Amino acid sequence: MPFIETSVDHRFPWYVRIFLWNQRRRYGAVLEPARLWGRTPKVFAALALLYGALDRRSSPIEPGLRSLITVRVSQINWCPFCVDINSATSLKRGIDESKLANLADFVNSDLYTEREKAALAYAEQITFSDREVTSEDIERLRGYFDDDAIIELTALIAFQNLSSKFNAALGVEAQGFCLPPRQPESGG
């Protein structure tokens, strides 16, 4: 149960109600984070636009890699909702279940490409608060991404940190979209 009441009786503005209706149609239920964010409608609208810009088809970061990154950041931030929905999205985007199951140990796994490992290592550098991004980290990324893609990758990681920290702090639970992969064990 979330720490903040997400009553279905809350009166949302029309544009938030349309978004919630679309979620109900797409997922069979309104997502709990949307009910929470919807209580601050202007912030919610801006957040939805930002997510749409980051998860667009023309992104220089392929959909499967975007999904792996969002799951890994969500694991680190202990967000069961985000791990749940982002894992389901990963599977829909063709990510193998074994990749999800071994995500916390991607560094030592042959399941991941070097491009994926570079992006996931960068996501960990940004997400773990006891680390800092170095010029060596950026140089490693440049072997696989141009500067514009690195900027977008950074924005995606920052967005997922915002989302998963928000949901975890407010106690948003998984909604049963996917069996969650194991939580982080390495990297800390």
Care to describe what's here?
The chain has helices spanning 14-27, 32-37, 41-54, 63-76, 80-92, 97-101, 114-127, 135-142, 147-169. The protein is mainly alpha-helical and 188 residues long. The chain folds into two domains: 14-54, no CATH class; 63-169, Up-down Bundle (AhpD-like). It is globular and about 50 Å long. It starts with 13 loop residues before the first helix and ends in a 19-residue tail after the last helix.
Would you kindly provide a brief summary of this structure?
This protein is mostly helical.
DSSP strand count: 0
Radius of gyration (Å): 17 Å
The whole-number mean of residue pLDDT values reads: 92
Per DSSP, the total helix count is: 9
Distance between the termini: 28 Å
Structural class: mainly alpha
**Which percent bin holds the helix content?**
55-70%
Supply the CATH class of the largest domain: Mainly Alpha
Shape: globular
Q: What about the largest sheet? A: none
Percent of residues in beta strands?
under 5%
CATH architecture of the largest domain: Up-down Bundle
| Order of secondary-structure elements | HHHHHHHHH
**Which fold name fills CATH's third level, the topology of the largest domain?**
AhpD-like
Into how many domains do the coordinates divide? 2
> Which regions are unreliable across 5 or more consecutive residues at pLDDT < 50?
none
- State the fourth-level CATH superfamily of the largest domain: AhpD-like
